[in-house]
Write a structure and sequence with these properties.
The chain is 81% helix and 0% strand. With 309 residues, the chain is mainly alpha-helical.
Length: 309
């Protein structure tokens, strides 16, 4: 296990997803030869593999790997440990991406309770739970609960010099909530603070794209389309570099289609929406609700372009 996560950090930063997957799988195979694959290190590796699959929107494989990590911890009698809670937290994040918001909140709360029982309310993992709960509550329209969780995470992590990532995440969560509440000036200030934190980090952070996406949405609402286009374009480039054409990539392409449409650049709008639809169909299926919505928007853009001509 020595050095494996440092190696993965370099590979993630380079965007070499094939090498990331191969490295994790090789490490799992090696660990199996050494221990039979029923130790905490193996569980951590399966958790890492599951997180990778989640990031590149290979959701079924992600769920299977998370399940394997949990089963290993349970076989070892480690259900009450922070490591087990970490896997629960990551699996809940997968549920949120799949639209299983109630299941996500239930599992986030279990992870939160486990960390509280271990008296870990003042560290990175607990703030991460709160930030993720904020996102899940926001998805469900429970904006007061979402704001409370995001604010508590920020208050925890703003006291720590080594928790820049969760501070930036909290800023971005609060920005999105302010935007939903119509407090655009506050939202923009918070989004810019999140981006400022990410920009100061020595290495590019995978979540920088989320803050750029929030800023792009704020600027779009202000009809500052050129600046919105710049923010979404940067978010798209970062997302593709780290994760390839995943679900976030599709959503950002859809955002870019909206911006180009607002600018009157119909051909560009259609091209980006077609790219968004291709990714969504590959990930969720041609007949999924998301694919149907994306196809409808593509048809609307194409029809508008035809009428213009």
């Amino acid at each position: 296990m020595s050095g494996i996560f440092e190696t993965l950090d370099r590979l993630y930063a380079s965007g070499d997803n094939a090498a990331v997957e191969t490295t994790i799988k090789n490490a799992i195979d090696t660990q199996f030869l050494l221990t039979g694959g029923a130790d905490a290190d193996s569980a951590s590796l399966y958790n890492e593999l599951a997180g990778f699959y989640r990031g590149v929107s290979r959701y079924d494989e992600s769920a299977a790997a998370f399940d394997r990590a949990l089963r290993i911890f349970e076989e070892l009698g480690m259900e009450g440990t922070p490591g087990y809670a970490s896997v629960q937290l990551n699996l809940a994040g997968l549920y949120r991406l799949q639209g299983r918001h109630g299941d996500a909140v239930e599992l986030f709360l279990k992870a939160k309770e486990l960390l509280e029982s271990a008296e870990r309310e003042d560290d990175y993992a607990y703030a991460s739970v709160l930030n993720n709960l904020a996102l899940a509550y926001q998805d469900m329209g429970k904006l007061d609960d979402a704001y409370d969780c995001a604010l508590r995470a920020f208050e925890f992590m703003s006291k720590s010099a080594s928790a820049e990532h969760e501070v930036a995440t909290s800023y971005n969560n609060l920005a999105a909530l302010a935007l939903n509440a119509g407090r655009d000036a506050e939202a923009e200030d918070l989004a810019l603070k999140a981006i400022s934190v990410y920009s100061r980090m020595p290495d590019e952070n995978v979540h920088h794209a989320a803050a750029l996406t929030t800023l792009g949405a704020i600027l779009f609402r202000k009809r500052n389309y050129e600046s919105s286009l710049e923010a979404f374009t940067q978010a798209l480039e970062l997302t593709e570099r780290f994760f390839g054409k995943n679900a976030d990539y599709a959503a950002t392409e859809r955002n870019l289609a909206s911006v180009y449409n607002a600018l009157g650049r119909r051909e560009d709008a259609v091209a980006h929406q077609r790219s968004a639809l291709d990714a969504v169909e590959r990930i969720f299926g041609r007949d999924s609700e998301r694919a149907l919505a994306y196809r409808e928007f593509l048809d609307t853009l194409a029809d508008a372009g035809s009428a213009q001509n």
